[in-house]
Amino acid sequence: MRRLGELEAEIMDRFWRWGRPATVREVVDDINRHRSVAYTTVTTVTGILFHKGHLTRTREGRIWLYRAAATREAYAAALMEDGLGASEDRTAALARFVENLDADELDALRTALHEAERRTDG
Amino acid sequence: MNAAPALLGYAALVGVTAPRVLLRSAWPHRAPALGVTVWLALTVTFVLAVALAAAQLASPAEHLHAGLVGLLHSCGVGSGPAVPDPGTTDAPAVALPAVVLGAWAGAVAHRLLRAGLRRARHRDRLDKVGVRCPRLRVTVLPHATPGAYCLPGLRARIVVSDAAVRLLSARQLDAVVEHERAHVAGRHHLPLAAAEGFGALFRRLPLARHVRDQVALLLEMSADDRALRRHPDAVLATAMYELAGGRTPRGAFGAAGPSPAVLRMKRILGPRRAPHPALRSALASAAASAPFLPLLVACPPGV
């Protein structure tokens, strides 16, 4: 059985690509073109995504129309900002490879690299 | 005999003098993992000294043993009589040090929990947006800023942006990923949480002011070392420069001393000699025995 997180990703992928409100039925039909998945499972997971705040919904007659709360690009940008520590949170939840530097520090890095190159060449 | 003044003197030595000595020493950068151990051992021995001093101050008339036995019992450890006689152990002698130890454990646990929640939230979103790359075992994030970071802990993730994949050569990318993998494999988030918890609790103490940044820097150096076992110096150093240079430089706000990236870069490119084995073992045994020193101060053998 696939992990729940993978189905969440598959569902979000549809909403991001379509960029419009859609019903659970549409999502199920689209996923079923690649693999079979139960309608109730998708309903449950879509509900989870709504409660986590990834989806918003409006009611049209007797059915719910869902859509992505933010674009894929906005998600990626927020993650990257978090990951690279632009928020300057002191809690080290994430470890970035190199912090943001100012111009002088970048110069210092460049100088150190050039000096090392000259040593190996000379 | 009341050992409170001796204990407080010891705490001052550990909390004020030791960090200054450590900051001026060259060896931590040469043996970063050992450096992390020594910094954390200082925090442990400081907390124990303060806790024992609190016990002494609460029951100045008695020798510490009664209070200490009571304390150990209240923590569910210790041998000897199953229940300390309520007559010999007075409540403040147990309660005060328990408050000190509890505050410390609470501060560290709070950091661990908060970081864990933040990572879980990040991971939840990451798994929807990112693309898993099975070859490198990383998650590629669609973003125009070159960057690499990792989420340590359970269900760890190593993340690179697709801009970083385009910017770096295959070898540079491998070296960066290896560095991040070292953070995950070494569970570096745990010592960092311990350092942060201590730092938050004793804010104004020199040891608390420095321990977080020093432990973070030494953990980065330790991860660099692991990447350098498999990759040439120049590859890792160039990758670092490329990733830092590919981002918008931040405004300078006059940070004290050279930035961690500059220190790491010079270290990667310079000669890296491990300290002499004798120095290493002396430091390791000092770190291992430091937590017990306050006990020796409080209860000298034969008293």
UniProtKB/TrEMBL annotation, chain A:
- Which superkingdom? Bacteria
Question: Gene3D superfamilies, per this entry?
Answer: 6.10.140.850, Winged helix-like DNA-binding domain superfamily/Winged helix DNA-binding domain (1.10.10.10)
Protein keywords:
DNA-binding, Transcription, Transcription regulation
Tell me, what's a Pfam family for it? Penicillinase_R
> Which InterPro entries does the record associate with it?
BlaI_family (IPR005650), WH-like_DNA-bd_sf (IPR036388), WH_DNA-bd_sf (IPR036390)
Give the family, as the similarity comment puts it.
Belongs to the BlaI transcriptional regulatory family.
> What is this protein's name?
BlaI/MecI/CopY family transcriptional regulator
Organism of origin is Streptomyces hydrogenans
TrEMBL record, chain B:
Against InterPro entries, the record matches this protein to: Beta-lactam_resp_regulator, Peptidase_M48
Q: How is the cofactor bound?
A: Binds 1 zinc ion per subunit.
Q: Which residues form a coiled coil?
A: none
What is its cofactor?
Zn(2+)
User: Where are the membrane-spanning stretches?
Assistant: 6-23, 35-58, 94-113
Which Pfam families does the record associate with it? Peptidase_M48
Q: Which UniProt keywords apply?
A: Hydrolase, Membrane, Metal-binding, Metalloprotease, Protease, Transmembrane, Transmembrane helix, Zinc
Residue ranges of every copy of the Peptidase M48 domain listed in the record: 137-194
Q: Which family does it belong to?
A: Belongs to the peptidase M48 family.
PANTHER family, alphabetized: POSSIBLE SENSOR-TRANSDUCER PROTEIN BLAR, SLR0241 PROTEIN
Name assigned to this protein: Peptidase M48 domain-containing protein
Organism (species): Streptomyces hydrogenans
